[in-house]
Amino acid sequence: MKKYLFIATLACMVLGLNSCHYRVVTETVYESNFKTLDLRVNTSDWRYSEDGGYYFCTLSIPELTSTIYNYGVITCYREYNKGSRDAYQLPLPQTLHNIDNGSGVLYTTTIDYSFAIGMVEIVLTNNDFQYAQPEGMDFRLNMTW
Q: Which of 112-135 are b and which e, b meaning 16 or more Cβ less than 10 Å from the residue's Cβ?
């Protein structure tokens, strides 16, 4: 009986050790670089697109190279209360729900961005396509590669 118990215990140990294979995965760590740019879009910088029905601002960003474009990660945030103790950032795209002060009509504003080598475009679209010139806004562009 002890012989069978010993064989059963040995079999369980062998099966237990062989049933889970732990494979060491080699991790490749790349040296990363990053750059953060503070961007300001003044009220006068916004341009209206008659074709698309939105406001936009195209910013020249020479730091956004082909290496960053092809291999990096680019994120953009809108910064509120810049330079104050109450400053905070919200990532784009951002959707804001608004009430028109004059008529009380509800509408939604979406702020988004796109990028290409050497440039970033920030776009502001209202869902009702009714616009007044947008206010000046602060943004923060983060690039990691």
A: bbebeeeebebbbbbeeeeeeebe
Identify which of 33, 69, 31, 64 has the alpha carbon closest to the alpha carbon of residue 144: 33
According to DSSP, the residues that pair with 90 across neighbouring strands are 78
Question: Mind listing the pLDDT tens digit for each residue in 88-145?
Answer: 999 999 999 988 888 888 999 999 999 999 999 999 999 987 788 899 999 999 999 9
Domains of the chain, by residue range, sit at 34-144
Bridge partners of 100? none
Tell me how far the alpha carbon of residue 47 is from its chain's centroid: 24
Residue entry with tokens 């104050």: 84
Measured between alpha carbons, how far is 86 from 50 in angstroms, rounded to an integer? 36
**Of all helices (H) and strands (E), which one includes residue 13?**
helix 2-19
Contact yes or no for 42/57 (Cβ under 8 A): no
Overall pTM surpassing 0.85 (yes/no): no
CB 112 within 8 A of CB 56: no
